[in-house]
């Protein structure tokens, strides 16, 4: 059978968060400090 | 052999202070979570923001020791992302509906790849001109050209089918193209759409 010469380009692109976003999250994680005092939790960012 | 550490194990390591564990978790679920958010909001920048907020929430919850869904890390993260998407639409007082008002036009999203009527006519004209010229070629060249271009056969297959060597088939194809070019020039035909 003869082939149909249509171009089927995939319109799907791999969606991923940018490396900058990941880097920000890793820095955020490293800087976040939770302290507990008398049953209360305090968040602090050690930047 | 690569042994993949379970999410629950990575969560445990992270809670115990291993920062590399959160990196592994983020990278592992990056694509899936981003795809999930993007499917809801349809905007690349907004997806990035919600992804970031989701993991900030994840990090805070884990560091506080408030996470208690061991073994179900991804569904939990997805739920956080889903709630953030809902929050976003609530805040902006709209749901992700597609309408065709003002700057947004649904037809910019739903493309139609077909040619318009004029281009279709031109294409038909070109096709018929081309066919007419192909019929003017010597039979052996016609045969190779049809097999190669219209039937997408390899030169090996053409050679097997016609009983000539690959080199002969290649030569016939070459002459077919040269002759076609001559015919195009001789007939002053424009073959562009």
TrEMBL record, chain A:
Domain of life per record: Bacteria
Name assigned to this protein: Uncharacterized protein
Species of provenance: Maribacter stanieri
TrEMBL record, chain B:
Protein's UniProt keywords contain DNA-binding: yes
A Gene Ontology biological process term: DNA-templated transcription initiation
Alphabetized InterPro entries for the sequence: RNA_pol_sigma-70-like, RNA_pol_sigma-70_dom, RNA_pol_sigma70_r2, RNA_pol_sigma70_r4_t2, RNA_pol_sigma_r2, RNA_pol_sigma_r3/r4-like, WH-like_DNA-bd_sf
SUPFAM superfamilies, alphabetized: Sigma2 domain of RNA polymerase sigma factors, Sigma3 and sigma4 domains of RNA polymerase sigma factors
Residue ranges constituting the RNA polymerase sigma factor 70 region 4 type domain according to the UniProt record: 129-168
Alphabetical UniProt keywords: DNA-binding, Sigma factor, Transcription, Transcription regulation
GO molecular function, one term: DNA binding
Domain RNA polymerase sigma-70 region: 25-94
Family assignment from sequence similarity: Belongs to the sigma-70 factor family. ECF subfamily.
NCBIfam families: sigma70-ECF
Family annotation (PANTHER family): RNA POLYMERASE ECF-TYPE SIGMA FACTO (PTHR43133), RNA POLYMERASE SIGMA FACTOR HI_1459-RELATED (PTHR43133:SF8)
Protein name per the record: RNA polymerase, sigma subunit, ECF family
């Amino acid at each position: 059978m003869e082939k149909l010469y249509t171009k089927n380009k995939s319109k799907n692109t791999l969606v991923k968060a940018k490396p900058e976003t990941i880097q920000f999250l890793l820095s955020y994680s490293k800087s976040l400090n939770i302290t507990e005092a008398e049953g209360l939790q305090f968040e602090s960012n050690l930047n | 052999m690569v042994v993949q550490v379970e999410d629950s194990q990575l969560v445990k390591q992270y809670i115990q202070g291993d920062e590399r564990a959160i990196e592994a978790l983020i990278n592992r679920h990056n694509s899936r979570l981003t795809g999930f958010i993007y499917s809801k909001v349809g905007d690349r920048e907004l997806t990035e923001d919600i992804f970031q907020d989701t993991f900030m929430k994840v990090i805070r919850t884990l560091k506080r020791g408030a996470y208690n869904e061991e073994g179900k890390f991804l569904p939990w993260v997805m739920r956080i992302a889903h709630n953030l998407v809902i929050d976003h639409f609530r805040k902006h007082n709209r749901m992700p509906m597609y309408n065709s008002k003002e700057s947004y036009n649904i037809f910019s999203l739903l493309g139609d790849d077909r040619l318009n009527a004029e281009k279709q006519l031109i294409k038909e004209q070109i096709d018929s001109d081309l066919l007419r010229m192909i019929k003017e070629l010597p039979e052996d060249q016609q045969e190779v050209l049809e097999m190669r271009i219209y039937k997408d056969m390899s030169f090996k297959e053409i050679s097997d089918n016609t009983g000539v060597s690959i080199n002969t088939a290649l030569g016939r194809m070459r002459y077919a193209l040269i002759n076609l070019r001559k015919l195009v020039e001789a007939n002053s035909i424009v073959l562009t759409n």
